[in-house]
Amino acid sequence: MGLLDGKRGIVFGVANKRSIAWAIAQALSGAGMRLAFTYQGERLKENVEELAATLPGSLVYPCDVSSDGEVAAVFASVGRDLERLDTLVHSVGFARREDLEGTFVTTEREGFRVAHDVSAYSLVGLTRAALPLLERSDGPSVLAMTYLGSERVAAGYNVMGVAKASLEAAVRYLAADLGPRGIRVNAISAGPVNTLAARGIRGFTDMLKHHADRAPLRRNVELREIGDTALFLASRMASGITGEVIYVDCGYRIMAV
Ligand code: NAD
Ligand code: 0WE
């Protein structure tokens, strides 16, 4: 008997087997949840289909979260195929490469817009489109991924930090709006993980070492630990938690000197 037996969820943000979204999917599926996945663009289709095929009963749809049409289409399909949603996982983020190096002050209007559209607004758009399906659940929840760069300056994180601040505020406003309908909305703030999105970043290996050296647990976070926290937040165990940001960072954030 799994904690999530009979539950149904949708996961946005799987690119490959190292994706945080995939770690979350494995944890949710392992607890009995049936999952739908979306992929961004044909390039990732095969990858996501291969991974999804390893989990029983899973479904796969295309969805670029910056397209209102694709967002509407995916929830029309999910409504047809799953009829209900208990959990929505948002594990999506993007900024132009040139905005993730150098200084923040050089961020142009279009780079700022793209980062906020894909990384923050998409949570609002996806959650709204999912509402009719979430309202059919007896314990619905929404989960987003964030990073400490939203509240402290992480060199180079730049416009993504500003977009994550917006995402975290959106978590609180959505939680307030949807709480009366029983829908919980939370975020996990993960320490740095060596994913596809991270590997392209200059100096990331040094950052991982810095983090492991300073964190109370003296190591970096494991994908399994992020998945397990997502499982907790999606389950009845977390039925009293909404609007929160939970840190899964080996304690890094509590340290001063
Ligand atoms: P990842 O590259 O595996 O995942 C990012 C995903 O975003 C990809 O699947 C990509 O396809 C998707 N995406 C980007 N633009 C999209 C669009 N327009 N439409 C649909 N999907 C789009 O990297 P990850 O590290 O697993 O990132 C997942 C989440 O975790 C992100 O929100 C990221 O900010 C957050 N996060 C990452 C770390 C880290 O160190 N890796 C730490 C904390 C938080
Ligand atoms: O949210 C992220 C990174 C998300 C990301 C990654 C890329 C790389 C490729 C968003 N957009 C892009 N665009 C690309 O073209 N993280 C939390 C990981 C991360 O990125 C950093 C970090 C950390 C941690 C960048 C600078 C400093 C720290």
Describe this structure in words.
There is one protein chain. Helix 2 (45-52) links the parallel strand 2 and strand 3. This protein has helices at 20-30, 45-52, 68-82, 109-134, 159-178, 196-199, 204-214, 223-234, and strands spanning 8-12, 34-39, 59-62, 87-90, 141-146, 184-190, 245-248. The protein is an alpha/beta fold and 257 residues long. The mean pLDDT is 97. It contains 8 helices and 7 strands. The chain has one domain: Rossmann fold, CATH 3.40.50.720. Nicotinamide-adenine-dinucleotide is lined by residues 13-15, 19-21, 40, 44, 64-66, 91-94, 118, 145-147, 190, 192-193, 195-198.
Features:
257 residues, alpha/beta, 7-stranded parallel beta sheet, Rossmann fold, 42% helix, binds nicotinamide-adenine-dinucleotide, single chain, binds ligand 0WE
What order do the helices and strands come in, and which of them pair?
Blueprint lengths: L7 E5 L7 H11 L3 E6 L5 H8 L6 E4 L5 H15 L4 E4 L18 H26 L6 E6 L12 H20 L5 E7 L5 H4 L4 H11 L8 H12 L10 E4 L9
Parallel strand pairs: 1-2, 1-4, 2-3, 4-5, 5-6, 6-7
Helix pairs in contact: 1-8, 3-4, 4-5
